[in-house]
Please model this.
Amino acid sequence: MKNIIIIGASSSLANIFILQACNHHNLVLISRNSSFSFPQSLACNLLIKDFSSYASEQELDLFCNDIQCRLDSSLETVVCLFAWAGTPRLSADSNLNRVFIVQNQNIVNNSIHLSIKICADQFIFLSSAGGIYSSKS
Model:
């Protein structure tokens, strides 16, 4: 059993993982989607936080403290980043692409801050983008 913090819990890939892991691990789910829900039968902690937005160090520290309270200190802690902002194959010079670059930098920075603050034992980044989008799109 492990503490597993899932950033981007409303993503399709994360949902599959959550269903497989919920009864075997202590899950803390983070989603920016306030309408995200999961079956009540799943034993998970759900927190709403938009990691794609800039957050001050103080704001992140408070959020990390909230997460820390939900972790079992006797277990190894893994942070899984499923979230990524963007759409398939945008032109590199498009304005929307520039917005996604900033959002993704925020996601990475906030995820790293969280991992360091809670002393995560492992950090995993997962993405299905390369597998589901045609290189011709």
